[in-house]
Amino acid sequence: MAGITTLGQFIIEKQADFSYAKGELSRLLRDIGIASKIVNREVNKAGLVDILGDAGTTNVQGEDQKKLDMYANEQFISALTSGGECCIVVTEEEDEFVPIDSPVSKNAKYIVCIDPLDGSSNIDVNVAVGTIFSIYRRKSVDGCATITDILQKGTQQVAAGYVIYGSSTMLVYTTGNGVNGFTLDPSIGEFCLSHPNMKVPEDGIIYSINEGNYVHFPEGVKKYIKYAQVEDLSTRRPYTSRYIGSMVGDIHRNLIKGGIYMYPTTASSPNGKLRLLYECNPMAFIIEQAGGVASDGLNRILDMQPKELHQRTSIFIGSPKMVKKAEEFMAEFSPVKSLSTDEIVEEKLEQLGVVGGID
Ligand code: AHM
Ligand code: MG
């Protein structure tokens, strides 16, 4: 089709960017694209069929699972299983990692970390939700991959992306050579290149945070919010507050318009709410590739060494000028990261020379 580049064509064209690529990563991205179309179909008709509401179970983090969360989880695992390029899936919906136990997949090179349906509390009210994914190359050479293959820093990601199921459905991804966005054309059932080489504006006027948690925020965040609300025409303040409560939607908007998204520590989430492996790392990779910044307020997200599958972190992400300003407030007013009780005990044991801390 003249004038249109589909996701499939684009992935194949870009395969040459990878010196080691033999097409596996391209096939993996294609499989994720196909599964997201199936999920999109169900999200679009969620109001029509009996898949709204709680499934009656909770995930490892004690959160209610929605039926569509589980449906999306099954679709992505199934696509990654039949594709044969992925040896392990880490998903928000499963306590343990999911080894893809087939003769082909066991030796596959890639690990996928995924939040199959993020922001799912928005489904019932017809607000944008998303899928977030991150792809790593395993360290071990063959046989079953292990936890060490999974717990890699975000800097090791070979690809990351998200799908936003919104007023239109888009897939945005990076393989470390910029960020490209594809809009699903429902009439032909294809993601078509609509946002080539996406760049986050260097500065913006939107700040996105759940301000209902204000009293529990670190002092640095409180001070930044007050800064955002003070009038100063030279820096286009007061800023505009926009918060959907759907990370993909909030970050996608800020990527296009410029802005900062923050989910800091709170009383109920002393380590932050969002998960490093399948929410923060992929979003940080995409935003950095688009020219933005992502940190926990003090340290770069992509440099964090994950210690567990469902590890959480606070996050400040978006336009570089805005994130750096928020970091200045954090450095001045909240320079020390709050630690969980386990981390405090672990640090103490490490100081005492008890190797490995606690389990
Ligand atoms: P989820 O993975 O359980 O859907 O939670 C992640 C979501 C993000 O998309 C969103 O930004 C955040 O949780 C909203 O949390 P809150 O309602 O505390 O503001
Ligand atoms: Mg999520």
What is the CA–CA distance across the termini?
Answer: 56 Å
Counting H and I runs of at least 4 residues, what is the number of helices?
10
CATH architecture assignment of the largest domain: 2-Layer Sandwich
The average pLDDT value, as a whole number, equals 89
Tally of domains:
2
Task: Give the distinct bound molecules.
Answer: 2,5-anhydro-1,6-di-O-phosphono-D-mannitol, magnesium ion
List the secondary-structure elements in sequence, H or E: HHEEHEEHEEHEEEEEHEHEEHEEEHH
Rg calculated over all Cα atoms: 20 Å
Annotated CATH topology of the largest domain: Fructose-1,6-Bisphosphatase, Chain A, domain 1
Can you give the helix content as a percent range?
Answer: 25-40%
Structural category is alpha+beta
CATH C-level class of the largest domain is Alpha Beta
Strand content: 15-25%
Note the main sheet.
8 strands, mixed
Q: Looking at this structure, what is the CATH superfamily of the largest domain?
A: Fructose-1,6-Bisphosphatase, subunit A, domain 1
Question: Judging from the principal axes of the Cα atoms, what is the shape?
Answer: globular
**Which spans have pLDDT < 50 for at least 5 consecutive residues?**
none
The strand order across the widest sheet is 4-3-5-6-7-8-9-10
- Quantity of strands, as a count: 17
Binding site for Mg(2+) 2: 115, 118, 279
Pathway: Carbohydrate biosynthesis; Calvin cycle
Catalytic activity: beta-D-fructose 1,6-bisphosphate + H2O = beta-D-fructose 6-phosphate + phosphate
InterPro entries: FBPase_C_dom, FBPase_class-1, FBPase_N, FBPtase, Fructose_bisphosphatase_AS
